[in-house]
Amino acid sequence: MPANPPVLYDFRPVTEKDLPMIAGWLAEPHVAEWWDDPETEIAEIGEHIDSISVEPLIVELDGRPIAYLQSYDPHLEDGHPYADQPFGTLGIDLSIGVPDLVGKGHGSAIVRQFVEQLFEEGAPRVIIDPHPDNGRAIRAYEKAGFRAIDRRHSRYGDVVLMAVDAEESDAEEGE
Question: The sheet that has 64-72: what strands, in order across it?
Fold first, then answer.
């Protein structure tokens, strides 16, 4: 029997029209547990729409919006706590908004696909910073190739800083 083809996700820029949907996702218990006040978060996401340093995206599966994803360059923000990472490093954050899609492997698959795109665009390293108590996210990111490189406490709270490097990804493909 042929193997199932990999699920492919589409990533599109967030628009003003998406903000109410994202606000709904931020209110879901599985998301609210890890994000700050939804009103504050939505205001920030709205500001990121025209940002140079942060790219807010909607993840779609078969045309259906299922998650919020953002990538950012820690070197474009004054005093960013991850500016010590190698130049060109990009950070990402992911929240699956649709509750019935949580715990089904989408998180690691979305991250893996998006990270490959970032590597193709030239990023040498991608970082992500889940809360240490968010075991589900940490396991998903490990499945996507990330490894813990540091434990930090910054303006983003207590985090496990995780990274995957482009060379690691290339080496795995060559095996």
Answer: 10-13, 54-61, 64-72, 90-96, 125-128, 157-165, 147-154
List CB contacts of 174: < 8 A, sequence separation 6 or more: none
Output the six-digit token pair for 141.
Answer: 């990111």
Chunked mean pLDDT (size 10), the chain, 175 residues: 66 96 91 82 90 94 95 92 95 93 91 96 96 92 96 88 84 46
Q: And the tokens for 57? A: 């995206």
Model pTM above 0.90: no
Among residues 174, 98, 89, 130, the alpha carbon closest in space to that of 80 is found at 89
Helices (H) and strands (E) counted in the chain, each on its own, are 6, 7
Instruction: Report strand pairing: 157-165 vs 125-128.
Output: antiparallel
